[in-house]
Design a protein that fits this description.
single chain; alpha+beta; conserved putative lor/sdh protein from methanococcus maripaludis s2 fold; Elongation Factor Tu (Ef-tu), domain 3; seven-stranded antiparallel beta sheet; rod-shaped
Length: 408
């Protein structure tokens, strides 16, 4: 082989390498030019960055799979959140992967009643205080003790009252004078000393005096305190016994202050007790106490219940159904409401895959539904699932929350 032939082959090899490299570069360049615009502009829209919808605060320069979740990163376009139709835009494929569910706000009614807990207590208005009307001493105490249940008229103690004996003697002396005016005045004096009319009539009939008196229970109920003891000297007005009636009892229920506006005096209340399964006790709310518990943030609702047979015993636990009549209300699923602490927000579906936040004022809740007092109209569609992701995206985009309309 000559030197000329070797030189020709060397030049031919270099030319072939240049052509191959040029062709490959051209092919790669054409491929990059054909794919890059589609990836970067997406139908003429400029991509600012990529993000994971589950972690919208983290931004990425290139597409790919999220390092947090097993899903592809979503593009963030420059024109989102601006223009004639602002809102968070989500394509159909992303809506399905994010589990976005939309529900229309509609008119309905919430459950009229709600349950709270309470306990049975004595009726503090049905209390009898037995006192000594005059000074004396206790001759006998009948077999009673605090906690005993007694009936009306049950004897409590026998008292000896010397002042009554002397007053009765004076009354009989005045009566013998035959002057009606003086006799009426002396009889009135006996009444003012606390002498029962039956005792005065017995003195009139028999003409004999006696300072002995048997004290009896004026009502039936539970003996709360018993101060009478045999041989004890009594002063006028000294308490011998205290009796709480059992004809009616109070049911004190703990009402959360958030539901205070749903209850008023005179409303019907129904109580159920574990001691009497399948039986309901009905009463009326007689009072809502004016102070709230600082620890539990509850109000005390007082319900009066009839206690037939004395079966309802103070201290028993009860579940109380409170509430008024059901009223029409605009309702949305409770899960659709985002509570920020200062206001409540829902995500509205605006059509064409766009969503926009709106402020609302909520009312009662029950059965998984929340009443909307202001901020929505019947038929408007709200996001009931996936709304927190949309709200985060709206915050990043800087979307303005739709304000409340002026109150009518």
């Amino acid at each position: 082989m000559t030197d000329a032939t070797s030189a020709a082959r060397w030049r031919a090899g270099i030319l072939a390498a240049v052509l191959i490299a040029g062709g490959g570069g051209y092919w790669l360049g054409q491929r990059g030019e054909s794919e890059a615009p589609a990836e970067a502009t997406a139908v003429g829209r400029k991509i600012l960055y990529y993000y994971d919808p589950m972690f919208p605060n983290q931004k990425f320069d290139k597409p790919g799979k999220s390092p947090f979740m097993d899903m592809q990163l979503e593009p963030k376009y420059a024109d989102e959140g601006s223009g004639a139709a602002p809102g968070v835009s989500v394509d159909p494929a992303a809506r399905q992967s994010l589990g976005i569910r939309v529900v229309a706000a509609e008119m309905g009614s919430l459950a009229a009643t709600f349950d709270v807990n309470g306990s049975i207590d004595f009726n503090q208005r049905d209390v009898a205080i037995v006192q000594a009307r005059s000074g004396g001493f206790v001759e006998r105490v009948y077999r009673l003790a605090p906690g005993d249940v007694i009936g009306a008229g049950t004897p409590i103690a026998d008292l000896q009252l010397p002042e009554w004996g002397s007053a009765q003697t004076e009354y009989l002396s005045v009566k013998r004078l035959g002057k009606p005016e003086l006799t009426a005045a002396a009889r009135q004096r006996l009444r003012l000393m606390g002498m029962p009319e039956g005792v005065i009539s017995e003195v009139d009939r028999s003409g004999r005096t006696g300072g002995r008196l048997t004290v009896r229970a004026p009502i039936g109920g539970v003996v709360q305190t018993l101060g009478a003891r045999a041989g004890v000297t009594l002063a006028a007005g000294q308490t011998l016994a205290e009796i709480s009636g059992l004809g009616t009892v109070w049911l004190n229920a703990a009402l959360p202050e958030a539901q205070a506006g749903l209850v008023q005096v005179g409303q019907r209340a129904t109580a159920t007790l574990t001691a009497f399964p399948g039986e309901a006790f009905t009463g009326r709310i007689i009072a809502i106490l004016p102070t709230a518990s600082a620890d539990s943030r509850t109000l005390t609702v007082r319900v009066e219940l009839a206690n037939r047979g004395g079966r309802l015993r103070p201290g028993m636990f009860a579940v109380v159904a409170l509430g008024g009549d059901a009223k029409p209300a605009l309702l949305v699923p409770s899960e659709a409401v985002i509570r920020t602490g200062t206001r409540s927000i829902v995500m509205l579906e605006k059509g064409d895959g766009r969503y926009h936040p709106a402020e609302v004022i909520t009312g009662r809740e029950g059965g998984g539904k929340t009443e909307i007092l202001q901020g929505l109209a019947p038929g408007e569609k709200v996001v009931a699932s996936g709304q927190f992701l949309l709200d985060s995206e709206a915050s990043l985009t800087g979307l303005t929350v739709r304000p409340l309309e002026p109150a009518q």
